[in-house]
Write a structure and sequence with these properties.
Layout: E1 2-5, E2 8-11, E3 18-21, H1 44-53, E4 56-63, E5 71-77, E6 83-86, E7 106-109, E8 112-118, H2 125-133, E9 138-143, H3 147-164, E10 167-172, E11 187-189, E12 195-198, E13 205-212, E14 215-222, E15 237-241, H4 247-256, E16 262-264, H5 271-274, H6 288-298, E17 304-308, H7 314-321, E18 327-332, H8 336-349, H9 361-365, H10 373-394, E19 402-406, H11 407-411, H12 417-428, H13 436-441, H14 444-447, H15 452-455, H16 461-468
Parallel strand pairs: 3-4, 8-9, 9-10, 15-17, 15-18, 16-17, 18-19
Antiparallel strand pairs: 1-13, 2-3, 4-5, 5-6, 7-8, 10-11, 11-12, 13-14
């Protein structure tokens, strides 16, 4: 699948994932403190997103050249080694502040060769030819075109596609900047030069092209921003679960509702490192009063939060869930053996979500070590005891304030998923919806990280099944 959008491009081809952020680099290039290198701490968020999402991200910025004048650059963040592409062809006047690059850049993204271009590069046929000569099957360009230049410049891109047999992805800036009024209309052309799809004007949109046996199919998804503030008429809620219970997927589904804003794991130890503006809530919490202060702050912006039974104390979680004005969605997994084993695997691999798995999944799992039986027993017993205590306490609250659900009910019975999600939305107090994206998130084949085949990579998996598999806590294999 190939995607482009008015302000950024997200490209994915049979497993390859590429995101091109079209930013105007040269206007800031002569501000010394804005000249960047990949290791700059201000770019931590992009490094982290690339790693977490297994995504190659291209971001425009002024970059160090090693000589007096910086380059107009494209910083490449990938799960492997970061790199830089420097714009080879400058616009008239840019040479006063900038120096041109001299290297062709073709990225290997999971076997797909992607040539990069920045704006005026695309006006030089030799640039596209060089990319093709270096093996590029995709030519991705971030540009700034106004209406006067749009027709002629896109005609060139169309020619490159047919002449070199490359898919050409063009992302055009869509909002006024530096005295320019860009035309938007990001577009994609196939290897024969036929336009696959195009955005309408300066709307914020994803322009998608998916490869099928008969060729490329395109569509446009318009971006509708969610309100920055929560909808106040909706009940505040807490999604509480133990780890490895599928709670992140449920939180993401709830957040897909146009009237909901859900904050995921605000009390996690590393929450403040996940996004640039995240606050370190955990360090502010020392008792129930300070917890209430942080929750009050969070619930001014969000309708709900998703938390797991760690790292706060039992008493603080209990205090949180007994608040009379907040509803609780209580999620637990009946198969605690799989929960315990999945947690042990994540501790060994340091991978906690499927989206963060490397391309070589087999290589990751073949290095798994034995999981001590006593540690699994300890985990199962502690989780069972803690969740039983929370559930017992929640049963003292009014029935309309607590919703009990299980992993198995949500994930193991696809025919019931729409009904269950409708019940959750009704419990929160919003319209009942169930979109295709929600359905995909609940598809275990797409979202489940650890399968029975993965469990078999654990050297002592047979011992685990023999000693711990039972009807009370579940089995590792089969029912």
């Amino acid at each position: 699948m190939i995607c482009s959008c008015s302000k950024s491009t997200h490209t994915s081809t049979t497993g390859s994932r590429l995101s091109v952020r079209n930013r105007i680099s040269w206007t800031l290039a002569f501000a010394g403190d804005l000249i960047l290198v990949p290791e700059d701490k201000r770019l931590h968020r992009l490094h982290e997103l690339s790693r977490r999402l297994d995504l190659t991200i291209i971001a425009g910025a002024p970059v160090e050249s090693g000589i007096e004048k910086p380059h107009i650059g494209a910083l490449v963040f990938s799960p492997g080694q970061p790199s830089i592409y420097a714009k080879k062809h400058l616009h008239g006047g840019e040479e006063m502040f900038l120096s041109p690059g001299d290297q062709t850049c073709v990225l290997n993204i999971k076997g797909r060769q992607v040539g990069l271009a920045i704006c005026a590069d695309t006006n030089h046929p030799d640039h596209a030819r060089d990319a093709a000569d270096h093996g590029a099957s995709i030519y991705a360009a971030g540009v700034l075109l106004n209406e006067n230049a749009y027709a002629s410049d896109t005609a060139l891109l169309q020619t490159y596609a047919s002449k070199h047999g490359m898919l050409v992805v063009m992302v055009n800036y869509s909002k006024p900047t530096g005295g320019w009024t860009p035309a938007g209309k990001s577009a994609i052309w196939d290897e024969e030069g036929q336009q696959v799809t195009k955005a309408d004007g300066t709307e914020n949109a994803l322009v998608l092209a998916t490869r099928h046996a008969e060729g490329w199919r395109g569509r446009v998804i318009k971006h509708v921003s969610k309100p920055r503030k929560k909808t106040s008429a909706i009940s505040d809620f807490i999604l509480f679960a133990h780890p490895r219970s599928g709670s992140t997927i449920i939180a993401e589904i709830l957040d897909l509702h146009p009237r909901l804003r859900v904050l995921i794991e605000p009390f996690a130890e590393n929450f403040h490192t996940w996004e640039r503006d995240n606050k370190n809530y955990l360090e502010q919490i020392v008792d129930a009063a300070s917890l209430d202060t942080q929750l009050t702050e969070i619930f001014t912006e969000y309708n709900g939060i998703k938390v797991t039974s760690w790292p706060l104390s039992f008493e603080l979680y209990q205090h949180m869930m007994m608040h009379t004005d907040r509803k609780v969605i209580f999620l637990r997994r009946e198969n605690l053996l799989k929960t315990a084993v999945s947690s042990a695997i994540s501790h060994q691999t340091n991978v906690w979500e499927k989206r963060n798995l490397p391309a070589d999944v087999e290589g990751l799992y073949k290095n798994l070590q034995n999981i001590p039986i006593d540690k699994l027993i300890e985990y199962i017993e502690a989780t069972q005891k803690g969740m039983d205590l929370y559930e017992k306490r929640l049963h003292t609250r009014p029935q309309n304030m607590v919703k009990m659900i299980t992993y198995e009910a949500l994930y193991d019975h696809p025919s019931d998923q729409e009904t269950l999600m409708h019940e959750l939305f009704d419990f929160i107090g919003v319209e009942q919806i169930f979109t295709d994206k929600m359905k995909r998130l609940l598809d275990k084949g797409l979202s489940q990280m650890n399968t029975e085949d993965m469990y078999r990579h654990i050297p002592n998996h047979e011992e685990i099944e023999t000693q711990l598999g039972n009807k009370a806590h579940g089995f590792l294999f089969g029912s």
